[in-house]
Every structure is written in structure tokens, then in C-alpha cells.
């Protein structure tokens, strides 16, 4: 769902003066560079990888998707700032999704750089290593609980059967637990646990520089997916909103997001995101009042999706599945707040107004 003032596809980043996904190593601050790397996706065209220079080498925030074109461009951009793969000492990975983690773990283990990842991502990584033993994609049961059995069938039919490459999903060298500090040369970078988008998501704050490496937690033009994790998390939207409030208690900083342009204020964007989700919660409650006991997919059909407020059935099948799971996360938070109830049913969890 898009909530920012300018669509991601048209957003200009102030560090480059160009479209945020334009090729280059764009200087964000002294010793900090933003390198957009391509993604093989229709919706998101690039991920921002950040390079932080220290006296003993480079720390990279996220690594990109382990595809040849992204690796070649990262190599080229590092050389343009007088560095190379051999200068990388550490990857601080915001979360386990493949566009953030896979290049970090592949390249990190090749060059001997430490790879750090939040410990609450461990169940997801373990699941990736056991997927060959599963009868079906772990997302399909989650879709069914959202009342989206038909979408689950379409997801299963569209699966090409290719199994995850263990090299792309190697375990990190360091599990990050709790909030802690990393030192990159003279810099102090605070690792702040921000679960919600995934259970082990971290943002990294350089408070002296006034910048937040925000991963997918605080995005300037879109909202991150919520509820699209396996194993399923408990109260993902509640965790996400609590994590937003946690970032709001830090000093106001520039946002260095994983997707989209550099943005001026964490305070402004966090407030927008919290307001957005409170509005969605209200709309979900209105749907329950109008329809009676229903599944999350039924409620999702009452909501608008994307910046253009598309109807649910206008979305592609993958987006419909994500919308169903995100709506379920909103309904679960209404249950936690005492405004709704939930009952397991063969057709999926059924929600109703309390």
C-alpha cells in the first residue's frame, strides 16, 4: 500500500538528484554511500545497499539479491569510490528477505566478511533449509487461515518447484540479540530491534550523523508488507506499530530506506505510517460490523489497495495473497484490542465484532 506523497516509481532522491534507483554510489554523508541494486521484480525495481567506510574497511547495510547483475553493479560502484569486495569487513542485514540477505551471505562468506542478522530470523532460515521435506509451500496454510484457499491453490499451481539454494541462505556469523552497538571506525551504529515486517527486523541508527538505516521498517513512499512471514508471527501488526513508536522515541533522523529515496524525517514518516494503519483498522472494523462473522479475505475485498485504491480482485494473484494476510494481521490486532473476536473454522479464521 502506498502512503507517501510521491509514488515510488517517480521519486527523486536528494543525494543524487535523480530517480532513486539510478545507478551509482551516491554520497549520503561523509563516508556513507547509497548504492541501488536491481531486483528481478515487477513492483520493486531496486534495493538500496548502504556502504559505511571505517578505518579498517567497509560495513554494508544489507547486501541485495544474489543475482549476477546485482553483484556486477555492486563491484562496479565500489570500485568507483576506490574500494572493492576485499575491503568489506561486515554486513549488517536488516532482515532475512532475499533482496536484503542473500547477496550478503553469499559474498560475505566468499570474502570472509562477518554477516550479522537478527536472531528472531532464525526460524525462517531453518525453514528455508528444511523446505525440501515439506509437502507444500509454508505460505499456503497461512493463506488458508485467511480464508484464501482459492488463492493458495493458484500460488501452488504457479510454483515452479525450484528449491532454495543453501548457499543463498547460509546462516550468519553473528546473531544480533536485543539492542546493541556496533563500531565502524569512529562511528557508533546502534542496532535497534524493530519486529513487525519480519520478527527479526533491525534498523541501524547513526545518531551522531543523524541518519537511520531503516531497512523495510520505515519506507518513505510505501508501507512494508505485514503478515507475510513464515513461520507465522504473533501479532505482526501490533509489533510493527510498537516498533514504529520505538523509532519515534529516538531523535529525529534522515531516513535511509531500503526502497525509495532518502527522506528528511523519521518523525514525519512514522506518524504517517501509524495514522495509515489506524485508518485501516477502522475500515476493517466497519467491514466486520457490516458483514458479520467473516474471514480476512472477505474483509480485504471491502478495502482499497495500492495508491490507486484498486479493488481486491483487480490485484494480481500474488498481491491478493499478500493483501489477505495483511488484512488478517489487522483483524488480529482488533482482537488483541478487544474490539473483535476470532474463531477457527475449516474455511479459515472467522472474525466478528465483539
Strand order of the largest sheet: 3-4-5-6-7-8-9
**End-to-end gap:** 27 Å
SSE pattern: EEEEEEHEHEHHHEEEEEHEHHHEE
Largest sheet: 7 strands, mixed
Q: Can you tell me the number of structural domains?
A: 2
Total beta strands: 16
CATH topology of the largest domain: Metallo-beta-lactamase, Chain A
The CATH architecture category of the largest domain equals 4-Layer Sandwich
Write down the overall geometry. Answer: globular
Protein name: MBL fold metallo-hydrolase
InterPro entries: Metallo-B-lactamas, RibonucZ/Hydroxyglut_hydro, Sec-metab_biosynth-thioest, WH-like_DNA-bd_sf
Describe what this molecule looks like in 3D.
It is a single chain. The chain is an alpha/beta fold. The chain has two domains: 8-274, 4-Layer Sandwich (Metallo-beta-lactamase, Chain A); 287-353, Arc Repressor Mutant, subunit A (Orthogonal Bundle), CATH 1.10.10. Helices cover 33% and strands 21% of the residues. The strands form four sheets. A seven-stranded mixed sheet has the order 3-4-5-6-7-8-9, covered by helices on one side. Strands 10-11-12-13-14 form a five-stranded mixed sheet, with no helix packed on it. Strands 1-2 form a two-stranded antiparallel ribbon. Helix 2 links the parallel strand 7 and strand 8. Helix 4 runs antiparallel to helix 5 (149-158), helix 5 (149-158) packs across helix 9 (317-336) and helix 6 runs antiparallel to helix 7 (266-291). The model has no long low-confidence stretch (mean pLDDT 95). Residues 46-259 form the Metallo-beta-lactamase domain.
Amino acid at each position: 500500500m502506498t502512503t507517501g506523497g510521491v509514488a515510488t516509481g517517480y521519486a527523486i532522491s536528494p543525494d543524487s538528484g535523480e530517480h532513486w534507483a539510478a545507478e551509482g554510489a551516491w554520497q549520503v554523508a561523509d563516508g556513507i554511500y547509497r548504492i541501488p541494486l536491481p531486483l528481478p521484480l515487477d513492483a520493486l525495481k531496486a534495493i538500496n545497499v548502504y556502504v559505511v567506510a571505517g578505518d579498517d574497511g567497509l560495513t554494508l547495510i544489507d547486501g541485495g539479491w544474489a543475482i549476477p547483475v546485482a553483484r556486477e553493479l555492486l563491484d562496479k560502484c565500489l570500485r568507483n569510490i576506490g574500494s572493492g569486495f576485499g575491503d568489506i569487513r561486515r554486513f549488517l542485514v536488516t532482515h532475512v528477505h532475499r533482496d536484503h540477505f542473500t547477496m550478503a551471505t553469499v559474498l560475505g562468506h566468499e570474502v570472509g566478511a562477518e554477516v550479522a542478522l537478527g536472531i528472531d530470523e532464525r526460524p525462517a532460515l531453518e525453514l528455508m533449509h528444511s523446505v525440501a521435506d515439506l509437502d507444500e509451500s509454508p505460505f499456503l496454510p497461512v493463506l488458508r487461515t485467511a480464508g484464501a484457499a482459492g488463492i493458495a491453490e493458484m500460488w501452488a499451481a504457479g510454483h515452479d518447484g525450484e528449491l532454495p539454494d543453501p548457499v543463498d541462505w547460509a546462516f550468519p556469523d553473528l546473531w544480533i540479540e536485543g539492542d546493541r552497538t556496533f563500531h565502524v571506525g569512529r562511528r557508533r551504529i546502534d542496532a535497534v530491534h524493530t519486529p513487525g515486517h519480519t520478527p527479526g527486523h533491525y534498523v541501524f541508527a547513526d545518531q551522531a550523523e543523524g541518519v537511520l538505516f531503516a531497512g523495510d521498517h520505515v519506507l518513505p513512499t510505501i508501507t512494508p508488507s505485514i503478515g507475510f512471514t513464515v513461520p507465522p508471527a504473533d501479532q505482526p501488526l501490533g509489533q510493527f506499530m510498537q516498533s514504529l513508536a520505538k523509532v519515534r522515541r529516538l531523535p529525529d533522523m534522515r531516513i535511509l530506506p531500503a526502497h525509495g529515496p532518502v527522506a528528511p524525517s523519521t518523525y514525519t514518516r512514522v506518524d504517517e505510517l501509524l495514522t495509515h494503519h489506524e485508518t485501516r483498522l477502522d475500515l476493517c472494523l466497519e467491514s466486520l460490523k457490516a458483514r458479520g462473522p467473516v474471514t480476512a479475505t472477505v474483509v480485504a475485498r471491502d478495502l482499497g489497495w495500492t495508491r490507486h485504491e484498486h479493488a481486491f480482485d483487480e490485484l494480481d494473484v500474488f498481491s491478493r495473497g499478500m493483501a489477505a494476510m495483511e488484512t488478517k494481521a489487522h483483524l488480529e490486532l482488533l482482537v488483541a484490542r478487544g474490539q473483535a473476536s476470532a474463531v477457527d473454522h475449516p474455511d479459515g479464521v472467522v472474525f466478528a465484532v465483539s
